[in-house]
Amino acid sequence: MQTLITTRLKDTTRTLLLQRLARCYSGDKSDWSLFYQPRQERANMATRYHLVYPALAYYALLQEQPGLADELRPKLDTMYRSLLDPRCWTYWHTYQRAYGNKVWLRRIVA
Fold first, then answer.
1. Per-residue model confidence as pLDDT tens digits over 55-86
2. Best exposed site among 43, 80, 90, 96 by fewest CB in 10 Å?
3. Are 78 and 28 a contacting pair, CB within 8 Å?
């Protein structure tokens, strides 16, 4: 009985999460309006984490259910394209200009 309840809860939760993620990552571009809007684009509040962690969750789901590949692949493609958006990386350049530590920047790029 407990296993059946746990399985149903897991399936319901997974369905709801996939629906929520589908709103953000369906289409050619991510829907930035649905993302958390940090006051400062840096550290663990950066936009890139809204792309990387759900992509990791999709990957784990694909390992468990390979049949979902056709459904999830377009969303993963959208996530990867979104990672190239300047919004995800501009703060590195802002930070570097503010502190002027070119050695530090070279370590990140290398």
1. 888 888 889 889 989 988 999 999 999 888 88
2. 43
3. yes
